[in-house]
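Design review, sub-item: ligand-bound model
Attendees: FS, YL, KQ
YL presented the inputs for the benzoic acid complex:
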Amino acid sequence: MSLQLGDTAPDFTAETTEGKINFYDYLGDGWGILFSHPADYTPVCTTELGKTASLKKEFEKRNVKVMAVSVDPLDKHMGWRNDINETQHVTVDFPIIADEDKTVANLYGMLHPNASETATVRSLFVISPDKKIKLMIVYPASTGRNFNEVLRVIDSLQLTAHHSVATPADWQHGDDVIVVPSISTEDAQKKFPKGVKVIKPYLRYTPQPNLD
Ligand code: BEZ
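KQ shared the predicted structure:
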C-alpha cells in the first residue's frame, strides 16, 4: 500500500553526506522535506539540488529541514556535490542519503518500475512537525521541480494549520484567503477581525491572518 496524505512519514536511519542520520532526530519538532532524484551527475538533478541550496534561508525561515535521496553511493555523492557547488554557485549543506540498497526509496515508494526499473522518480514529501505527510508530488525524470511552488505550498500548509482558512488557486503569501465552508458567515465575521467578503454563501474571502 503506497503512502498517502495524512499517513505517518516512515522513520529510518541512513548514511548521508553529513554522516549517519536518523530522520526523525534530524527533523526534530520542525517541518521537513524528503525528496528523491534519479541519479548523481545528471543535469536536471544538478539544478534541482542547486536551487534547493540557494533557498536555504527560505527553508530556515519556515523551520523546514531538507533531505535528499539518491540510490548512488556516498563517494559519488561527495564528488557530485562539489560539481553542484561549483556550477550552481551554492554550498549544498543538507544531507544527501546514499540509498544504495534502496531502503528509503522503497519505504517512500520512490521507485516507479514502469517509469524506470532502477532509478527513482522525482518524489517530494512535505512532513509536518507531528510527522504526518502533508504534500506529495511526483515528477518524471525529464522535468525539474519548481521549488518556489514547494515554498508556496508550505506557506499555505503552515497558515491553514493554525487558522480556519484555505488558500485559493495561485495564492501567494499575503493574498486574501478563503474562509473554510464549515464556519458560518456569522462566526467568520467574529473570527476574522480584518473582515469577511461574501461573494456567494460558500465563497468567502478574508485578508490573510497573521501567522504568529
Ligand atoms: C537529469 O537529472 O538530468 C535526468 C535524469 C534522468 C533522466 C533525464 C534527466
